[in-house]
C-alpha cells in the first residue's frame, strides 16, 4: 500500500470549494476561548463540507496566527461570521428553520448513537466554552441536547475533538439516508 501524495488527492481550489453544495449543518461556537480549538473547528468544517461556522461572544476570529496554525487555511474556504450573542443567534437560526442541537451533558440528553437526523432538515450544532460548556439558556432553547457517550474517568472531550465526532456522525447518518 502506498500513501497518497498531494497530487493524488486532487483537492478542490478554495474557489471551487466555496461553490460546492454543503451539508445542511452549521456550527455555533459559544464563547470558545482557545484559538487552537477555533482553528481546528474550521479544519473539520472544511473536511466535512459544513455550511458555515458562527463564532459567538468571546470566541476568537480570523485572522489570528493561533487560529491559522490549526486551521491551515480553512478560514479562507469555510464561510464564517462573528455574532456577539449566542442566544440571539440561536433564535434567529430557529426562525430560519434550523433544528438546534446543543452538544452537552444534560438531563434527558440524547446519546449521539441514538440521534437520527431527519433527511431534508437543517441543523445547527452548538458547542460550548472549554470550562462552562454551552450556556444554560441555549441548552434550554435547543430542540435536542446531544451527548457523546464516554466510558473513561474524565467524561469530557476537547471541543475540537467533540466537533469532529458529532459532525462525522451527522454526515455518516445523513449520507446513509441518501443511499
TrEMBL record:
Does the keyword Methyltransferase feature in the UniProt annotation? yes
**Residue limits of the tRNA/rRNA methyltransferase SpoU type domain?**
25-167
Record keyword Magnesium present:
no
InterPro entries cross-referenced by the UniProt entry? Alpha/beta_knot_MTases, rRNA_MeTrfase_TrmH, SpoU_MeTrfase, tRNA_m1G_MTases_N
One GO molecular-function annotation for this sequence?
methyltransferase activity
Q: Name one GO biological process term.
A: methylation
User: What stretch or stretches form a coiled coil here?
Assistant: none
SUPFAM superfamilies, sorted: alpha/beta knot
Keywords, in A-Z order: Methyltransferase, Transferase
Q: What is this protein called?
A: RNA methyltransferase
Q: From what organism does this protein derive? A: Pontibacter saemangeumensis
Amino acid at each position: 500500500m502506498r500513501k497518497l501524495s498531494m497530487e493524488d488527492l486532487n483537492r478542490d481550489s478554495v474557489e471551487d470549494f466555496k461553490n460546492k453544495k454543503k451539508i445542511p449543518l452549521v456550527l455555533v461556537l459559544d464563547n470558545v476561548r482557545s484559538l487552537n480549538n477555533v482553528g481546528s473547528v474550521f479544519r473539520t468544517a472544511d473536511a466535512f463540507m459544513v455550511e458555515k461556522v458562527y463564532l459567538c461572544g468571546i470566541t476568537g476570529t480570523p485572522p489570528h496566527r493561533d487560529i491559522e496554525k490549526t486551521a491551515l487555511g480553512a478560514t479562507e474556504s469555510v464561510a464564517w461570521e462573528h455574532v456577539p450573542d449566542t442566544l440571539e443567534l440561536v433564535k434567529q437560526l430557529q426562525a430560519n428553520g434550523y433544528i438546534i442541537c446543543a452538544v452537552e451533558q444534560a438531563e434527558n440528553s440524547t446519546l449521539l448513537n441514538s440521534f437520527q437526523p431527519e433527511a431534508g432538515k437543517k441543523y445547527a450544532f452548538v458547542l460550548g466554552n472549554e470550562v462552562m460548556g454551552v450556556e444554560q439558556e441555549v441548552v434550554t432553547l435547543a430542540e435536542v441536547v446531544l451527548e457523546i457517550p464516554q466510558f473513561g474517568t474524565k467524561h469530557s472531550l476537547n471541543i475540537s475533538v467533540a466537533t469532529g465526532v458529532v459532525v462525522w456522525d451527522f454526515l455518516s447518518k445523513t449520507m446513509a439516508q441518501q443511499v
